[in-house]
């Protein structure tokens, strides 16, 4: 009987040893500093003037999610200096006339503010990633053009821009892309490249400098100026500077 008891005790001790060896031991949760963050995904509120708080439930608001304020009939919005990302169509299809991007933002979806009657789009001066001029969203150094949030149909690209990025003047219309209604564009001599699918409008007047490289990043079926076959005409004419006009489906250089 004594040997049987000792055997059982030995088995139990061995089992406890195995559990101790293989069980993961954790530090106390109090040993760590953490930061929980808030992404706003929707707005069930009723106010048309919205001041987004910098913290919700004592956590910083860092992201405005895709379509979070889409079609909410907003007339004014304040984005706090805690937000780092603004998603696709986040504030699209509202009645916003003024938008200020705070210093904290590091990423803005190109379509975030489309279909708003914006007359004043600005970026806070100490933002390290973006700048703005005349309602254009630019890189911090002003050399890359990402988006245009104004309402003018005959526009002049700011001097100093060297690259116009893909989809700069393209918006989403349902499940397809569309233009913003441009009829004319003046491109300064500082621009050296325009990426594929930068424009998607029936533009009839283009002023452009010499030797601009078009359709950057595209392929044989794409172009910088979709719908109007400008790329081919400009390239075939030696990429010369000038004002080009479209009449009855034919381009000419003045």
Task: Tell me about this structure.
The protein is mainly β and 254 residues long. It has 2 domains: 36-133, Leucine-rich repeat, LRR (right-handed beta-alpha superhelix); 152-254, no CATH class. Helices cover 11% and strands 31% of the residues. The protein has a 6-stranded mixed sheet with strand order 10-11-12-14-18-20, with no helix packed on it. The longest helix has 21 residues, at 2-22. It is elongated and about 70 Å long. The model is unreliable at 2-13 and 16-22 (pLDDT under 50).
Topology overview:
Blueprint: H1 2-22, E1 38-40, E2 49-51, E3 55-56, E4 59-64, E5 76-78, E6 85-86, E7 98-101, E8 107-108, E9 120-123, E10 130-133, E11 136-139, E12 144-148, E13 154-156, E14 163-164, E15 170-173, E16 176-179, E17 184-186, E18 193-195, E19 205-208, E20 213-216, H2 230-236, E21 242-247, E22 250-253
Parallel strand pairs: 1-4, 2-5, 4-6, 6-8, 7-9, 12-14, 13-17, 14-18, 17-19, 18-20
Antiparallel strand pairs: 3-4, 10-11, 11-12, 15-16, 19-21, 21-22
* Termini gap: 112 Å
Radius of gyration: 28 Å
Order of helices and strands: HEEEEEEEEEEEEEEEEEEEEHEE
- Count of structural domains: 2
Mean pLDDT: 89
Backbone shape: elongated
Q: Can you list the strand order of the major beta sheet? A: 10-11-12-14-18-20
For the largest beta-sheet, the strand count, sense and barrel status come to: 6 strands, mixed
Number of helices: 2
